[in-house]
Design a protein that fits this description.
homodimer, 172 residues, mainly alpha, two-stranded antiparallel ribbon, 8 helices, 2 strands, DNA-binding
DNA sequence: TTACACCTGTGTCCAAGACACAGGTCAAGA
DNA sequence: TCTTGACCTGTGTCTTGGACACAGGTGTAA
């Protein structure tokens, strides 16, 4: 039984008499709780290897819901925020969009398995990625081929209907 | 000697006496000249196999400089516009950015060879494309691998620190 | 006249951050 | 105490190449 749990038990045992203590004990719990697991922006970013702007971005779109320091107004990111951002970054690495991530987190927030949604979304995003991969591959080949052909061609000045013969004479 | 050239010669030979004709002959030249080679947005788009919005986009960024019909205010795209857009579309197909294209056209407009610029730019864009290709390839492989692994895994409900085990347990 | 296709200039949207701005807070050093 | 620089906030803007939206004008067949 750690200190916080013991403190909570003390609070509970004084339930009917909490007015004797005012709100000071509750504040103590909040303060201790944040010192145990709450961090500011840069620390959060450091722990997950991203920029502070990325942390702020996910806060802005409400994937992260930090508390607020009453003294200076700074945000305080909890362990839960840490887990959520770690999850979001993993999902981004796997090609899920930010909106996908919000949908998955909604399921999890309701204590429902997000797995069926995740399976559906990965199929969809994988198809998109396959297409983008094919397009980029074709473009890469075109550009490589053009560079090779152009190395054998002279520079020319534009004519009335030809702006750049390199580009306009490229066969594809 | 075609009809328009003959008409221009007639105009020139009446140079000192054009007031006898008013502006009617000049309008006739403009009108005929546009009928010979000027088209409206949709026709321009149709001839190049793009959308009218694409034509309007390139007009907006001043790659195309259409005339204007005095009667109804509609744009009239010349043969030169046609050549420029055809060029721009070819360059886009080769991975040049719109800004690249504007730079190349500036050279051509000054009657200078754009070829050195084109060679420099294709190198740059090819490097970018190679990188994008590599990234997309890696993403594609990750996603494919994830889909395979997940097909052998059960659905699970989130826990306190795990939102979706599929995503979070994916090894990479 | 009506209806519909076409036209214009201008503004906004798209994605996932990165950057900008004006102003507040913190803490070490002089 | 003051200064300075790092850090913080909320909010706005930017990035790219089109696609879309909007309010209003034009053309033409029925």
């Amino acid at each position: 039984m750690d200190f916080l749990s013991g403190l909570e038990l003390m609070i509970d045992s004084y339930q009917g008499k909490e007015q004797s203590f005012g709100v000071n004990l509750n504040l103590a719990i909040v303060r201790l709780s944040c010192e145990e697991g709450c961090v500011k922006v840069i620390e959060m970013a450091r722990r997950l290897g991203v920029t502070a702007d990325t942390v702020r971005f996910y806060t802005r779109i409400k994937i992260l819901k930090p508390g607020k320091n009453k003294t200076n107004g700074y945000r305080e990111y909890s362990e839960s925020d840490y887990n959520r951002l770690r999850f979001a970054l993993s999902a981004r690495q796997l090609g899920f969009s930010v909106e996908d991530i919000q949908e998955i987190l909604n399921h999890a927030d309701k204590k429902k398995s997000p797995c069926p949604t995740v399976r559906r979304l990965i199929e969809h995003r994988l198809n998109e990625t396959e297409q983008r991969f094919a397009e980029t591959q074709q473009l890469r080949e075109r550009m490589q081929q053009a560079a090779i052909e152009w190395s054998q061609k002279p520079d020319k000045v534009p004519t009335g209907d030809m702006i750049c013969h390199l580009i306009e004479e490229f066969a594809q």
